[in-house]
Amino acid sequence: GAVVSQHPSRVICKSGTSVKIECRSLDFQATTMFWYRQFPKQSLMLMATSNEGSKATYEQGVEKDKFLINHASLTLSTLTVTSAHPEDSSFYICSAREQRGGKETQYFGPGTRLLVL
Amino acid sequence: AQSVSQHNHHVILSEAASLELGCNYSYGGTVNLFWYVQYPGQHLQLLLKYFSGDPLVKGIKGFEAEFIKSKFSFNLRKPSVQWSDTAEYFCASLKTGGGNKLTFGTGTQLKVEL
Asked: In this predicted structure, what is the pLDDT of residue B104?
């Protein structure tokens, strides 16, 4: 099946620094990728939709200047958490949309655990 | 707006018991439906999906789900669970023709006891 990778899997950073998370579709091209946040024992919350070659679309309440998204190629999207604060500590998950015959399926990456001290 | 409801938040079963996890979606139009599983410490994996056609969908690891349009339901089933099925299960819907956003249910934590 389709494989999506994320890097890094875990990151610890100091408050005020920026952290970049990469999401790659390994065996298919994805014009659209998605970034989610998952809080402990909760479901996934969609943060933004990453579109190759154009600006990301952010969900209501998500600060676009804080969570910078770049989708520079058909297999790579990056999420940069700028000026991270402890409340940004979370599990960030990306997914990549595969389209076949007009049908689409999202495949998920393994997630990145961010801890901001 | 779309919504997905999973009414069972925690389910505990003994090995070999049968499983049915409920999922209801709200959108009245054409939807695609998915079940994902998240094993402890692992990422979300696709169990099965429904686009159209036969409403009974078979997925990996012996799971199946039935799409019942009149009930807006897409319940997940497995005739005999194993300890290794302990995981969190998420139902999700995708409204076709717009948005391209998956709407997730809140998840059901399944624990299978030996």
From this structure: 92
